Structure formats: structure tokens, C-alpha cells
Amino acid sequence: MTRLHLHLLSDSTGETLEMIAKAALAQFEDADVVRHFWPMVRSRQHLDRIMADIAANPGLVLFTLVNSETRTRLEEHCRALALPSVAALDAVTDTLENVLGQEAKGKPGRQHLMDDAYFARVEAIQFTIAHDDGVAWEDWEDCDILLAGVSRSSKTPTSIYLANRGYKVANIPIVIESPPPNALFGLRRPLVVGLTTAPERLIQVRRNRLLSLNQSPETAYVDTEKVSREVQYARRMFADNGWPVIDVTRRSIEETAAAVINLLNERQASGDTTPAGPKPI
């Protein structure tokens, strides 16, 4: 298999470009790709230094550069080296200009402006970190989403991902021996979502977790019968309280988060904020 050098050049953080490249590369199994990441390219001098590495490792160049001089110079270099180059956002931006009837601002990093949305996202992240694993349950009414599920059902990483999207999220583990506080069953504002998973997959995840901590992989934490009871207990709680449930067995964190956001949007569209409980087990 031929190795491909993929050069990603951005005049901002490069986050958007990285996501585009990742999404496209996911369509090619076992591709041998070496990524070269070049963020904050905003001067001719910086670009010229980068071109030395591109010339030494020729490949495909993807870029998001709004400065016309820097962009033109990059395209000239690529033509001289006979390298393909793609402006990752041009097609979308051009179409938006036509549809909206206005010209794009052409300012690097406009999506990263420190506006109200930026500070709201920071606040959401801080809230989510402070309300992980059942902590500070007295504040749950202030969150947008509350995730409930047994241990290792991806509550924390999903919460953090959602927080980065601007949602205040709390989460709580469902443990048979330690029932959640009654406040959980009377929440009005937050969307409560139950996360469930197949016991077999849960055991595998927990066993890997124990091994990573240099602990014995054979404990009650991974006992087949006990884990099955835990999952059944959680599922019964979700059903009794009318909470929507997402099976994360074969879902990535991103897919789970997308499903949660979809549920929240549907709830907000219907105007339904009435809790189904309280019906504690």
C-alpha cells in the first residue's frame, strides 16, 4: 500500500480541517496516511518554512486559508511541486454566499470568537466537570441533561462531549446497593436519559479497566450474574420513570451524544418538561 502524506494547513486552530480529514479518511480502511498538521499559518514567511517540509514529504494538501495572498502563494507552490491541493470549505462558502446574497467575511478563526456562545460553552464544561458521577446533586435542576447508567456505560465521556457542545450535563451511576437521591425522580427542567449496554460488553469494558489499574480482573465487579442484575435494575428504573433509553453497546461517544441531542431537541419542540416520576425503585 502506498503511503500518503496528508498536509493540513489552517490560518486558525485547524480543528475544523482536522474533523473534515478524519471524516473523509474514515471511509478508507487501513489507509497508510501520515498527517502533517500546520495551524495558525498567517504569514508568507511561515508558509515558506512549511513548504520545505511539504516538498520533502510530497502528498495531498488540504487547507482552510482565508487570506488571499497566503492562499495564492500556497497554490503556486503546490502547482510548482505538482501536488494536489484542496480548499476544504470553498464549495460550502461559495454556495452560502450565493444563497445568502452576501460576501463571506474572510476572517481567520471566526468560529472561535470569544462571544456569548463561547463563554456559555466554557460554563457548561465547568458545570459538567463539577457534577460528574453523582456529585452536587442539589444542582441537578440547573442542568440541561442528566445521564444515568451503570458503571462504565460511557456516562462521563458522553457528558464531556456534550459539554463541549454547550450543554450543562450531570451524570449519576446506578448502583443497586446505593440508590440515587430522590431528587432524581422529580426533576423538571433537565432531560434525563438512561444509558444501557449489553452485559457481555460491559464485563469486557470493566475487565479492561481493572487491568489498566493493575487490579485483579476477577471480582464481583465483573461477575456475570451480578452485572446482569445491575443492568436489569437500571433498565427497570428507566422504564418505570419513562426516561428515554439509549443502548451504547455499539455506539461511539459521538453517536451517543448525537442521539441525546436529538432527544433534547424533540423534547423542546414538543414543549414537554413534565417529569414522569417520582417512581424510585
Blueprint of the fold:
Elements: E1 4-10, H1 15-25, E2 33-38, H2 44-56, E3 60-64, H3 68-80, E4 85-87, H4 90-100, H5 116-130, E5 145-149, H6 155-164, E6 169-173, E7 191-196, H7 199-212, H8 224-241, E8 245-247, H9 253-270
Parallel strand pairs: 1-2, 1-3, 3-4, 5-6, 5-7, 7-8
Sum up the structure in keywords.
single chain, alpha/beta, Rossmann fold, 2 domains, 4-stranded parallel β-sheet, 9 helices, 8 strands, disordered C terminus
Report on this structure:
This protein is of the alpha/beta class and 281 residues long. It folds into two domains: 4-111, Rossmann fold, CATH 3.40.50.2300; 116-270, 3-Layer(aba) Sandwich (Rossmann fold), CATH 3.40.50. The chain is 44% helix and 14% strand. It is built from nine helices and eight strands. It has helices at residues 15-25, 44-56, 68-80, 90-100, 116-130, 155-164, 199-212, 224-241, 253-270; strands at 4-10, 33-38, 60-64, 85-87, 145-149, 169-173, 191-196, 245-247. The strands form two sheets. A four-stranded parallel beta sheet has the order 2-1-3-4, covered by helices on one side. The chain has a four-stranded parallel beta sheet with strand order 6-5-7-8, with helices on both faces. Helix 3 links the parallel strand 3 and strand 4. Mean pLDDT is 89; it is low at 275-281.
